[in-house]
Amino acid sequence: MRFGGHETFPIREGWLYKGLHLLKTEPSKISGDEAADWLGVGRNMAKSIRHWLVVTKLARPSGRIGKTLRHPLELTDLGELVWSRDPYFESIGTWWALHINLASDRDHAVVWRWFFNVFSGARFERSVCLEAAERYLDRTGVRMPSRLTLERDVACLLASYARTIPEERGDPEDNLVCPFTELGLMTYFKGTGAYEVHRGMRPLPPELLGYSLARALGSHDEGRHSDLPLNELWGLENGPARVFSLSNEAFFEAVLDAVALGELDDLKVVGLAGERVLRVTHRPALNWLRAYYESANQTPTEVAV
After folding, report:
1. Domain ends where: 197, 219, 237?
2. Contact yes or no for 113/133 (Cβ under 8 A)
3. Residue 189 belongs to what H/E stretch?
4. Domain termination residue (choose one: 197, 220, 243)
5. Residue 196 phi, psi dihedral angles, 5° rounding
6. Number of structural domains the chain divides into
7. Residue span of the structural domain in which 240 resides
8. Does the chain have fewer CB atoms within 10 Å around its N or its C terminus?
9. What is the pLDDT of residues 195-247, one digit of tens each?
10. How large is the C-alpha radius of gyration of the chain?
């Protein structure tokens, strides 16, 4: 399990496009000494971009993973799909998919996975979140990182998702706000220093519900269906209720709305033995995302390279 790697920087607007563009045009340069120059950012920011490409599953090391950041990267199938359909990362569905990948990552985003799967705080200060993360890691026997590293992970996670109130005014060209704030998962109240996680109902694209289920359950028995009781599904590790930060009631409502909206044969809510179950047809996570782009009439995009 790894901690850090982001150099304290949340993802910034345009970073992932820059990273994918360089990987498509001159992939060797993203790992070289001049990567910062090619990406048009500082050296630590270049390291951060590489980190975020890997942990969101847009890219992967093409050689042995070592302690440095100089191993070459290559686009994953997800990276290729996003590059062809949403290279400028304008679709909210793309950000939901990247968030789901982060929130369910066991290896490179330990704090993210803990926060969305385990942490139950609704309103808290950053110090409370940090202490809860420490207790969890201590209980699970994970090799504890330094306190500074863990502090930076918690701070980066909160900065990635929390929309500040009152809104901070600055130069729009700075692009300091992480696009994950657009998901509406969290608010930071600057006056009190408190964070609040929003666990109420939010509309979910049905294909992203399917994507999250495929990530949690795997794509075994492709083409077959499973009947998943909604009560059990709410507690599924890495499942949609967890990664979308939904309360029990909000989860039921969101599932019903998503299924009704999508009218997909692969996602249905049915009554079975006196309880409601979600009948889902198994297919790879990437197929769900492709279906999302198709339903949004998002045709392949030609990008100048």
Report:
1. 197
2. no
3. strand 186-189
4. 197
5. -130, 125
6. 2
7. 206-295
8. C
9. 999 999 988 899 999 999 999 988 667 778 889 999 999 999 999 999 999 99
10. 19
